Amino acid sequence: MIDCDIHVQISKPEEIIKFIDPAKRDWFRNQAYMLGLPAYPWNHSSSWYRKDLQVDENEYPGATPQAVAKDALDDQGADIGILTADDALSVGLMENAYSAATLARAHNDWFREDWFPVDDRFRGSIIIPTQDPAAAVAEIERCASDRRFVQILLPSAGERPYGDPRYLPILEAAAAHGLAVAIHSGMEGMGLAHQSSGAGTPTLYIEWHTIGSACSIQAQLVSLLAHGTFRRIPDLKVLLIEGGVAWLPGMLWRLDTNWRGLRDDTPWMDEPPLETMKRHVRFATQPLEYTDGNDELLWQMLAAVGAPEILCYASDYPHWDGDEPKWLEQRIPEAWRQAVMHDNAVAFYGSRLELPVLQ
Amino acid sequence: MSAWHDIAAEADVTVGNPAIARIGGREIGVMRDPRTNDLIAIRNRCPHSGARLCLGTVAQRIEGEVGGDYQLVDRTVVVCPWHGWEFDASTGECIEDPSFRVAAYPVRVEDGRVLVEA
After folding, report:
1. Which domains occur in chain B, in start order?
2. Residue-range domains of chain A with CATH
3. Shortest Cα distance from A141 to chain B (angstroms)?
4. Which 110-169 residues of chain A touch chain B by CB within 8 A?
5. How far does the CA of residue B64 sit from the closest CA of chain A (Å)?
6. Residue A293: exposed, middle, or buried by beta-carbon count in 10 A (0-12, 13-18, 19+)?
7. For the whole model, what pTM was predicted?
8. Predicted ipTM?
9. How far, in Å, CA of A252 to CA of A110, rounded?
10. pLDDT number for residue A359
11. For residue B47, cis peptide bond before it (omega within 30 degrees of 0)
């Protein structure tokens, strides 16, 4: 089994700060929220985390490589675990682009120095200062030679959707190095990011959790397809994480409908966008929506847009709304299991999933 | 058995002013291509959802390679007035979805009259 979304937590900011130039360390220590990262206005009412995970006092779950190796790899039975950021997903939305570049660099060094050496099953995500595309490309170039990094990681919320031409150098750099582009839901309204739904700022956590992050994932998918990004970068591969999947057929059918009638606005879209999506985009399974007894309908709808090939398993460890692998495996059709739990991720990430060539 | 039918005076078929006639239970329209000045004869019914296709526009096809690239190409399309679907003016094929096709007919001018074979 390959787990495509394991959230590494920062319990002790000094673990990151030690990778920052001494002259800049106090800036990060003196910010209101952790390391100057934009903070969520919507908090889970009790905890972001699974409450069955044992942690020391003053430490978050998933904050040490040993804990992640035990909980997410050993106990859940993962052959490979792809580490994603958690709070630091918002680094590209910091108002201060210089600090963002510094922090992204330190976070990537933290993965490389303190995490990868602990367990051969770890693979990682490069976070980047998206608000400064030139600096973002430089960070990708700096990290790409370490093949334990399998992707760059972007938040679904942003200043503009990622099909915007300003982001082309970032996407081109990722593709040129065989890195996937993972877009993880979240960070709407934080730092430089817009709210995602267009209806205004949500009041409640459940509003954000239901609509906010799903809307921005949908916007990213439509943007990349509408701008012809995959035609311009044929090797680009994108994983959309934690935005749900039940909406996918409806959104793609809507986009295909619009494409037929609006093609003179986007004449570079030379095939139905659904077909482009099938070749280039994959979706992490978590959180797989409950269907009130209509699972068969869900499988039929997802099959109509390319499942099971478009689905890759993700646990979302250590969060409260994660999908445990055995539960997920039993729920999906038997004929899909090998592909969703393992093979699709192998095909998607390619050789970077192989045992690491240590630098 | 098809035959040639007199539809209209050629001078009356101008850009934006189609001639429409009923032939054997079908409405057929003749439209003027603004680019080539040729005449186009097609069935006046969009195969998608039934709009009167000849009330749409005849346009030069736009294509592009990458985002932001707009190029006029050597192809004329009839654009449905309802949903904007594009049909090749010569073949009647919906370019984005060839499973949809509108009938296209031979057309010629003789003694100032527009003749359609249907």
Report:
1. 4-117 (2.102.10.10)
2. 2-353 (3.20.20.140)
3. 25
4. 163, 165
5. 4
6. exposed
7. 0.93
8. 0.82
9. 38
10. 39
11. no
